[in-house]
Write a structure and sequence with these properties.
This protein has nine helices and seven strands, in the order H-H-H-E-H-E-H-E-E-H-E-H-H-H-E-E. The protein is α/β, with parallel strands linked by helices. It has a seven-stranded mixed beta sheet with strand order 3-2-1-4-5-7-6, with helices on both faces.
Length: about 240
């Protein structure tokens, strides 16, 4: 954590959050998918499917997946939505290298392309995409509202943003059990399997600081979205946010 109170992966004041996040994901890219599914008991797969299905009503043909990581969310979107084209952007080359391997293995080169890019300065013209998605990435933005505003910029009028992110359960006993799991068990397991011991300590810290629920939908509105929705999943452990341009 930096001295300003912003949660960062390494607390290195010589590098900004963006640079530290890129370094962290480069470090854990090889074990990221396994740990994601293992630590969530596979529930993350269900969350992704529910989030993607919220776009079925608009049938997006051109979709942007921000913080695409290893590409799981975008690949699932291709399966469910059958768009013409999906572009994935991420700041971690290590994660994108894993995504490229999946794309080649699944023969999706004509449908899904990935590129290195900054969520706060997306390399696309305005009003380019029918939908923009982010799965477990917005809490890693260095400037949250700026990233959301740029997502809104590249959306076509009437287009939707769907954001899937961890949140903080508030009901007993889920709140207490989640706290024990995320603060103690998750870092221990993550450290065991990952070469970056700090990454899975950063995760619960970043979730705890994230402005979830109605606080986040308010930020979405200030960034240019309307008709915002907040849909908690699995006792509030995760939340799907939806906004329309």
């Amino acid at each position: 954590m930096t001295t300003s109170g912003t949660v960062t992966p390494y607390g290195d004041t010589d590098a900004g959050k963006k640079q530290q996040v890129a370094k962290m994901f480069d470090n854990i890219s090889g074990t990221y998918d396994f740990l994601n599914h293992f630590l969530s008991l596979g529930i993350d797969i269900r969350w992704r499917r529910i989030a993607i299905r919220s776009l079925q009503s608009i049938k997006p043909q051109h979709l942007l997946d921000v913080a695409t990581g290893t590409g799981d969310f975008a690949i699932e979107a291709i399966r469910i939505l059958a768009p013409e084209k999906v572009v994935g952007v991420d700041i971690s080359q290590g994660m994108l290298d894993v995504a490229k391997e999946k794309i080649a293995k699944k023969g999706l080169e004509d449908l899904f392309e990935v590129q290195l890019g900054d969520s706060e300065a997306l390399p696309f013209e305005g009003e380019t995409f029918d939908a923009v998605t982010v799965a477990f990435g917005v809490r890693n933005f260095e400037h949250l509202e700026k990233g959301l505003a740029d997502m809104c910029r590249v959306l076509k009028p009437g287009g939707k943003a769907v954001i899937l992110e961890f949140s903080n359960p508030r009901r007993f006993p889920v709140k207490q059990l989640y706290h024990i799991y995320s603060r103690h068990m998750l870092p221990f397991i993550g450290k065991f399997f990952s070469k970056d011991s700090r990454a899975y300590t950063y995760l619960p810290e970043s979730v705890a600081q994230f402005p979830d629920g109605e606080r986040f939908t308010a930020i979405m509105r200030s960034a240019g979205f309307r008709d915002t929705e907040c849909r908690p999943q699995t006792f509030g452990i995760c939340t799907i946010y939806i906004g329309t341009k």
